[in-house]
From TrEMBL:
Pfam family, any one: WxLIP_HBD
Organism of origin: Lacticaseibacillus saniviri JCM 17471 = DSM 24301
Annotated WxL Interacting Protein host binding domain residues: 165-300
Bilayer-crossing regions: 310-330
Protein name: C-terminal membrane anchored cell surface protein
Record key words, sorted: Membrane, Signal, Transmembrane, Transmembrane helix
Signal peptide per UniProt: 1-29
Nuclease listed as a keyword: no
Length: 346
């Protein structure tokens, strides 16, 4: 399933408030070169027609999550499947490709914790299909949306190229998103800034803004505008804009504001941000400070040579002071000699 198709379907999914139904007999799938993953509806509470699971449930209800695997190979396919909790990548896109996800203080319920088994290894004979399943036990007390997905990785990965004499083996993965919705609950997302700091992005100086959605709802197709000023000033130093953001429930991500190839300067700053989607909008600010030591270290790591301007200025000031004192001393000495000569003549 292509990313564009997934994002379009996901937006429609949110717009209808989890009311999607499979249309006709078409079921989209995660289609790779060697195999295909297709979601299978286990009951009437599950919709799978757009290539992902939309599961309505009640608290503490048990149901199956089924997936069909088609092996295109002429040899047996050994596949590792895992169910992971959704998180937000630093690009601002929802993902479910890792069991270890960034920590968020608002994330109290993780989809992976309510699924058994969390991982499994499956062997599919050549040119055949196999259906497997996971058991989902919904939380006993929860309101909102749990998000994640099934990730698949073929055993051994895929040999993709050669670098010198070394073969590079990269594991490619395909997956199916899961949206678990508690019945009769509509959660509303949020956008705010946890923090901001000086940092590096792609080895270039930047300000890194940590953006959070602390609500149990997907923040879909969102637009965000960020800017940085000196604290207490209105002049905007640098900006960053983002569109099409897909921010997972109860998650955060770090978004860069490029410093335009310039040095970071020590000082007090303010991050200003706005966000919007589907008639909702947010406005937020966050003060932060870049110390002289942080600025020096980041600038050096970005390839800037150490800035000794302050040292030369200090040296120049000291030289001027010394010259001034020397001139003053020489002047006084000259005056004393003149006064002594005048006294002797008298």
């Amino acid at each position: 399933m292509k990313l564009q198709k997934f994002l379009i379907g996901l937006t429609l999914f949110l717009g209808s408030c989890f009311g999607l139904q499979a249309t006709g007999s078409t079921v989209y799938a995660a289609d790779g070169p060697d195999y295909v993953l297709s979601p299978v509806s286990a009951n009437k509470a599950q919709s799978v027609g757009n290539g992902y699971y939309v599961i309505r449930t009640e608290n503490d209800r048990v149901q199956q999550i089924k997936v069909n695997i088609l092996n295109k190979r002429s040899t047996t396919l050994k596949l590792s499947l895992s169910v992971n909790t959704g998180y937000t990548q630093d690009s601002g896109v929802y993902a479910w490709d890792s069991a270890k996800i960034p920590n968020d203080s608002s994330l109290k319920y993780k989809l992976r914790d309510y699924v058994q088994p969390k991982t499994m290894t499956v062997s599919i004979p050549p040119k055949s299909t196999k259906e497997v399943g996971f058991t989902l036990n919904a939380p006993a007390s929860y309101s909102g949306v749990l998000m994640g997905g099934i990730t698949s990785v073929p055993d051994g990965g895929k040999e993709t190229g050669v670098n010198g004499n070394t073969a590079l083996k990269i594991k490619y993965a395909y997956g199916l998103p899961i949206f678990l919705k508690m019945d009769n609950v509509r959660a509303v997302p949020n956008m705010s800034a946890n923090s901001a700091r000086g940092g590096l992005y792609a080895s270039k100086t930047a300000v890194l803004a940590n953006i959070e959605n602390n609500k149990p709802a997907l923040l879909a197709n969102a637009t965000m505008k960020l800017s940085v000023t000196r604290r207490g000033e209105k002049n905007v130093l640098h900006t960053a804009n983002a569109t099409g953001l897909m921010i997972a429930p109860n998650s955060n991500f770090t978004y860069p504001i490029s410093w335009g190839g310039q040095r970071l300067e020590a000082g007090d700053y303010t991050l200003h941000g706005t966000g919007s989607t589907g008639g909702q909008s947010w406005k937020f600010t966050r003060n932060f400070t870049i110390s002289a030591a942080e600025a020096d270290q980041l600038n050096q790591e970005a390839g800037f040579k150490p800035d000794y301007t302050w040292l030369w200025i200090t040296i120049a000031i000291l030289v001027l002071i010394i010259l001034g004192l020397l001139i003053y001393w020489l002047g006084r000495r000259s005056n004393k000699k003149k006064n002594s000569a005048n006294e002797e003549e008298e």
